[in-house]
Amino acid sequence: KALIKVTPLRQEPTGKPITLEGVFAGMKGHAEGRLMQSHPLSLCNTSEDERQENIFISIVKLESPERQVPQCLPLLEKARLAMKRGAQAVIFDVTDDASAAVELRESLLNSGDYLLVVLVQAKDAEVLMGLVNRNEEATVRIETMSETPKWAHYD
Amino acid sequence: EVPPSCTRGCELCSEYNGCLKCMPKLFILLERNDIRQIGVCLASCPVGYFGVRNPDMNKCNKCRIENCEDCFSRNFCTKCKEGLYSHKGRCYPSCPEGFSATNGTTECTS
Questions:
Q1: ipTM of this predicted complex?
Q2: What three-state secondary structure class fits A140?
Q3: Burial status of residue A35 (CB atoms within 10 A of its CB: 0-12, 13-18, 19 or more)
Q4: Which of B34, B64, B76, B86 is 20 to 30 A from residue A19's alpha carbon, by CA?
């Protein structure tokens, strides 16, 4: 599981971060950066979203498949494109597209490159997308949720 | 009834992403506003962008030509930054040899 600590800028430095949960779609890891929305269509070869100056983490709200939004690229390639443009990690809100989670897991299984992809949904996604909708700048820190500690001498 | 998050001309609207698909003939511009990036539908692309028409989607892409403020296509600048001269859709500090700017303009002609 992934631990997502979100600190709205207006709360820094005093504010306690909001702690959310997600799932690593592929490799686990840590990342930190400014929360930045990417429109699903901005992650296509034809669009040239600018490389952002600051250190950021992309969040992409995936629409329900029934809405037939043009896909333009497989989700793995979208994640790659986001990271090529400077994202430290990519968060996909899969609340409305459960199949996206399956697609990402499978494709990330065989991809060798460093791609930190986290899936969020429901309440956790709502908090993140709420910040985006209110255009509230926030810093996001992604960590791995520590497993229940296995005592070294235990066997 | 189009939800507030979408401009007129939007055929497929999303609360979070803004427009996902514009009505025929319109261009979709992915507008960055601080942390948000939403789709908006326009009859023509704004300054600094050029329109690309495709069967499934017409899109506004950013001009990428050096020292260019407005462009007609990926490779043809229509307005160079102040103080620069335009020649065959590119921008230069001065007109190339054999060319000169016609009186008072920044257009290089032979």
A1: 0.86
A2: strand
A3: buried
A4: B34
CA B22 centroid distance within chain: 17
Task: Report d(CA A50, CA A33) in Å as an integer.
Answer: 17
Residues of B in contact with A34 (CB under 8 A): 35
Contact predicate A92/A118, CB 8 Å? yes
How far apart are alpha carbons B44 and B29 in whole angstroms? 10
From the candidates A9, A37, A48, which should be mutated to test the interface with B, based on the most B CB atoms within 10 A?
Answer: A37
Which among A36, A42, A133 has CB closest to B16? Answer: A133
**Alpha-carbon distance A124 to A73, whole Å?**
26
Whose tokens are 């990342």? That residue is: A31
What is the pTM (predicted TM-score) of this model? 0.87
Q: What is the pLDDT of residues A124-144, one digit of tens each?
A: 999 999 999 999 999 999 999
| Partner B contacted by A52 (CB < 8 A) | no
Q: How many residues does chain A have?
A: 155
